[in-house]
Automatic annotation (TrEMBL):
Protein name: Putative glutamate--cysteine ligase 2
Sequence similarity: Belongs to the glutamate--cysteine ligase type 2 family. YbdK subfamily.
Organism: Cellulomonas wangleii
Record's keyword annotation contains Nucleotide-binding: yes
Enzyme type, top EC level: ligase
Length: 364
């Protein structure tokens, strides 16, 4: 498994600042990896906007190894940002209002032409977890079975209550803004790898996606690596929560793969309940009800997380991850989600305090 994280770059006042190109250059001049070394991700690379950068771990087998990689990635990205007169902050949307500046590149320019305001306003940061699969057949079998559980992952990761200086009332406004892309969100079962490939080809042929890399599903087959890529989560405020999300993603993939081998069918056949469950998770995070499979009925968030843990327990036991996941979950319940922490800081010192505390938490 591997984790890719997108981060915001802010100036001394906490306002988004367009220094990504300078930060990547500083990283590479300092002996960092090139962006294309070591899948998935590796190194430091720019994103759609100059106010963002992305880093990624190398593939890892153990959670301890992954935790070190996540922290190292955050530390080297933070150091590069400082060299470019910026600061790194792991929030999924900016608490402070500021402009966006499109990163240089023909693909980004084509996206801006095609998607207009959606691109200009798209300053959001996610966490993408890659989990290896044997082939596309196994990958699609996994995608067809993990969808109903992805909103619970979103609820655990929510870290974007603010948009343009305003509390939106959502715990993850990022997910709402992200779903403006025509290919974003949950998917119905594909059933076969051929059907998945036909869906991708059709979306590109329709003109609503420029290429297969613009399949912005909540979970997809990676267009670059032999992995299932789970993309539903906000970037996590704290490294511990990124490791927790990754561990749960790996267990989801393993559990779904075993179900497919055992002939257990997908628990859903329509996308509408998944969209409702995703909205519910974005709205209240862990502070309200979540919709739980197989019937997508509302249950308290704590119960939903407990039931997901029961669902994943055999895979977590077999990987040796259960105790670590239980410990990380306990810490999360104690301190709250990233959205909870941001709102607590705002009550104490306003939005500047949110940014200052989040900068520190990013590399804690």
């Amino acid at each position: 498994m591997g984790v890719e994280e997108e981060y915001l770059l802010v100036d001394a006042e906490g306002v988004p600042t367009g220094v990504a190109e300078a930060a990547v250059r500083a990283h590479e001049q300092g002996g960092g990896e090139a962006a294309d070394e070591g899948p998935p991700g590796g190194g430091l690379e720019k994103e759609l906007q100059e106010q963002q950068v992305e880093t990624g771990t190398h593939p890892c087998l153990e959670l301890d190894e992954l935790a070190v990689e996540v922290r190292q990635g955050r530390a080297r990205a933070s150091a590069a940002a400082l060299q470019a007169d910026g600061r790194l902050v792991a929030v999924a949307t900016s608490p402070m209002s500021g402009p966006t500046t499109l990163s240089r590149g023909a693909r980004y320019e084509a996206m801006a032409q095609a998607y207009a305001l959606t691109v200009r306003e798209q300053l959001t940061s996610g966490c993408h977890v890659h989990v290896s699969v044997a082939d596309d057949d196994e990958g699609v079998a996994v995608l067809d079975r993990i969808g109903p559980w992805l909103p619970v992952l979103l609820a655990l990761s929510v870290n974007s209550p603010y948009w343009h200086g305003e509390d939106t009332g959502y715990s993850s406004i990022r997910s709402q803004m992200w779903n403006r892309w025509p290919t974003a969100g949950p998917t119905a079962p594909f059933r076969t790898a051929d059907a998945y490939r036909r869906a991708v080809t059709g979306l590109v042929a329709s003109g609503v996606a420029l290429d297969p890399a613009m399949m912005y599903f909540d979970a997809r087959l990676s267009p670059r690596y032999p992995t299932v890529e789970i993309r539903v989560a906000d970037v996590c405020l704290r490294a511990d929560d990124a490791v927790l999300v990754a561990a749960l993603c790996r267990a989801l993939v393993e559990t779904a793969s075993r179900q497919a081998v055992d002939g257990v069918p997908p628990s859903h056949d329509r996308v509408e309940p998944l969209r409702a469950a995703t909205w519910r998770a974005a709205r209240s995070g862990l502070g309200g009800d979540l919709l739980l499979p197989p019937f997508m009925t509302p249950v308290p968030a704590r119960d939903a997380v407990a039931q997901m843990l029961d669902h994943l327990r055999p895979a977590l036991v077999d990987s040796g991850d259960l105790a670590t996941v239980q410990d990380l979950l306990a810490r999360l319940w104690q301190r709250g989600t990233g959205a909870d922490e941001q709102r607590a800081w705002a009550r104490e010192g306003g939005l500047p305090a949110v940014v200052e505390n989040a900068v520190a938490a990013t590399i804690a």
